[in-house]
Design goal:
Blueprint lengths: L5 E7 L7 H12 L4 E7 L2 H9 L5 E6 L6 H5 L2 E2 L1 H6 L4 E4 L5 E4 L2 H9 L9 E5 L3 H12 L4 E6 L2 H15 L2 E6 L10 E4 L3 H11 L7 E4 L8 H7 L4 E3 L1 H17 L5 H14 L4
Parallel strand pairs: 1-2, 1-3, 4-6, 7-8, 7-10, 8-9, 10-11, 11-12
Antiparallel strand pairs: 3-5, 5-6
Helix pairs in contact: 1-10, 1-11, 5-6, 5-10, 6-7, 8-9, 10-11
Length: about 280
């Protein structure tokens, strides 16, 4: 077990709302890592490089939120294949030589949160949205064995440009269409990467349609979202975005500390996050 004075933190702008300190500190406590601490630092893109330069050897890992997930790729000595494909890194891990390795645990979080709720085989999935988080959703769905994806976005052309090359790289068959017509698409599972306003528009567009059997909504604030609530009313399986957040944080803890959180530790992290966000 690791000992004596290791530090980690979450960086981003804004970052005051982040639940990462609650998640990581709970994991440290449950894992018996008494000498680990976790901080929160407001940092914009042009501040990341000098922040890294100023860190001493006690620093072992950083969680990154917007707007740092892109610039982190340019500051790392090595970048994981997942982060390269996602074009985003939400994690920096300290190297023995003092540099940093970049990784993306958002994809892992989606797989871990969504996977247990899926049928044995999923032929087709929906992604609502077409931006950076949709790339992580595409990677996760490919990891889960999905071969056909339809992306529904407010700007279909932009979504096709963002997701098309990645789909080709993954061997996934991709179609793209307008968000307003997403209810016409048949799929067993959907991942919504939409912000709250977009999710509300998707709920309106669903109308009286049945919707997919399983939905993961990556939004976790003000839960349930209008889209989640709409599908809950149809007795569909809805996966909370907080589950994804907890799972990606658990993976970060493992990468940073070398200790893999057990199911009991992950449950403690989830409970702490729900309490901190006023949901229990």
């Amino acid at each position: 077990m690791l000992t004596s004075g290791y530090r980690a933190a979450v960086l981003g702008h804004p970052v005051d709302h982040s639940l990462s300190p609650v998640l990581h500190e709970t994991a440290y406590r449950e894992l018996g890592l008494a000498d680990w601490s976790y901080e929160r630092h407001d940092c914009e893109e042009d501040g990341l490089a000098p922040f890294l330069t100023g860190l001493d050897a006690s620093w072992r890992g950083l969680s990154l939120t917007m707007p740092l997930k892109g610039v982190a790729l340019t500051l790392a000595q090595e970048v994981s294949p997942t982060a390269i494909r996602a074009r985003a890194a939400n994690t920096l891990i300290r190297r023995v030589d003092g540099g940093w390795d970049a990784d993306n645990t958002d994809v892992y979080g989606i797989v871990a949160a969504l996977g247990p709720h899926l049928p044995a085989t999923v032929e087709r999935a929906l992604i609502l949205g077409g931006g950076a988080t949709a790339r992580s959703a595409m990677l996760a769905l490919a990891d889960l064995g999905v071969g056909q994806v339809h992306a529904a976005a407010r700007r279909p052309d932009a979504a096709a440009a963002e997701l098309g090359p990645l789909a080709d790289d993954l061997g996934v068959s991709l179609t793209v269409g307008p968000l307003a017509q997403w209810r016409a698409q048949t799929a067993e599972v959907a991942v919504s990467t939409l912000p709250p306003a977009g999710g509300a528009a998707a709920a309106d567009a669903l109308g009286d349609g049945d919707g997919p059997a399983v939905l993961l909504d990556v939004v976790y604030a003000n839960w349930p979202t209008p889209l989640a609530q709409s599908l809950m009313g149809r007795h569909r399986t809805v996966v909370d975005g907080l589950d994804m957040l907890v799972q990606q944080a658990a993976r970060q803890v493992e990468l940073m500390t070398g200790e893999a959180p057990s199911a009991m530790v992950i449950e403690a992290m989830s409970s702490a996050a729900r309490t901190a966000s006023g949901r229990s």
